[in-house]
Amino acid sequence: MNLNHYTRRHTSEVRIGECRIGGNNPIAVQSMTNSATADIEQSVTQIERIADAGAPIVRLTAQGRKEGEAFAQIVERLRADGYRTAVVADIHFVPEIASIAADYVDKVRINPGNYRTEGGDLERLIAKCRRRGVALRIGVNHGSLARHIFDRYGDTPQGMVASAIEFLRICAQEDFHQVVVSMKSSNTRVMVHAYRLLVEQMEREGMHYPIHLGVTEAGNGLEGRIKSAVGIGALMADGIGDTIRVSLTEPPQNEVPVAQLLVNHFAEREGHFEVAHPERYSPFEYRHRTTIQTPVTHDEADERFMVVEATSANPTAEWRAALLDAEPSQPIIIRRRYEDADLETLAVCAAADMGALFLDGLADGIWIDAPQHPAEEIRRIELAILQAARVRISQTEYIACPSCGRTLYDIEGALAEIKARTSHLKGLKIGVMGCIVNGPGEMVDADYGYVGAAAGRITLYKGREVVARNIPQEEALDALVELIKANGDWQEA
């Protein structure tokens, strides 16, 4: 990455149906259905809603043969309805399903954590994709690394990179380059560092595959949008990213305008900002610049703090240059004025601009100057940005997946009910996951977990430990509250 000016990373072009990403193509937005893929009618309806919202790429899960074969009718129905939307199959565990889906879809996504390299499965899938012109996404998830990777690296950004590179090298050996890669995590710091490490490793190996960006399990509402914008925005500010998905525990079409807002926000970056001390900065680790332990909002700051206001069209680079040039002992608040009348737009743009400075440990305080909005709403956004960047926990954090066709309970309703009962708890992290595919792993740093186990059944976790299995959903929330109380983490509202 270039610290002095914005340059979008050069990538090779990949064709996903009629959509092209990488190269000189604009950044494409996408989403994923949460319908049962075997339900043809519901899946087609959801895809068309997502496409109508503006996404040229839509992904569906395929956990079994029935779901894999359902893509034939889904794609046929879409084309008959006049939709040219690129259709992507999301595969876990069973290589044979990837091969079935590749007969019908435009891209197949596999997770190296649960897809074997031995036995020629990947080579056979590549051969199938090559014949049909199907793209392949190597989609690494922080919460589901392969055992041999985890045993060597742990659940670290370095382990995520090793997982991706292992598969990318096979693609390169097979001379197959219609490949996209992603490095997703619900921890924005892990996610950002993993992507940056991946890009550096790919450059060393002469790989220029396009990048799919996303923060997993971001949750819902304003906080979910801010968390996504902090992680995705930090990378887009570095010129990384060719297609993005904002994962929200909401109807899938709600993700699209948020993703498009981020694309539009980064459409034009300008300005050259000379970095005087590049040795003070590492893109691959959190390096705290001062001794201030807890970043502040501007109304909490004392006279020690200096304010640095960004006024250019590239505020992230402007702040970074100023902070790296400042005395390391000088606490600094970053400030920017936002004129947006819409509070959600303001929150997403501010999170995308400011989040990277906290993810990397450079800034000590935040000041969103927006007098057109109530001060309490602006403070809420400022605190949410600090929390999303993992530097200050001021409220309950929900690590909640957006759900997909594997989810066997009403996760949107469950999340709303859990938030209503627990949002007053300070400093807790609660995982709300649709299934076990990524559930226990992605909520690795959660204090408590609420995970779908079967139709209408929930398994509860304390940290990584299962404490109750297969509870009826109607009893699970009360059981979660009792678990929190039993461990001394409950506070009365």
Total number of helices:
15
Instruction: Compute the average pLDDT.
Output: 93
Strand order, largest beta sheet: 8-7-6-5-4-3-10-9
Cα shape: globular
Instruction: Pick out the low-confidence regions.
Output: none
Number of domains in the coordinates? 3
Q: What radius of gyration results from the CA coordinates?
A: 22 Å
CATH superfamily of the largest domain: Dihydropteroate synthase-like
For the report, how would you describe the main beta sheet?
Answer: 8 strands, parallel
> Under the CATH scheme, which architecture of the largest domain would be assigned?
Alpha-Beta Barrel
Q: Tell me the helix content.
A: 25-40%
Which fold name is given in CATH as the topology of the largest domain? TIM Barrel
**CATH level-1 class of the largest domain:** Alpha Beta
What share of residues are in beta strands?
A: 15-25%
How far apart the termini lie comes to 46 Å
**Class by SSE composition:** alpha/beta
What is the tally of beta strands?
Answer: 19
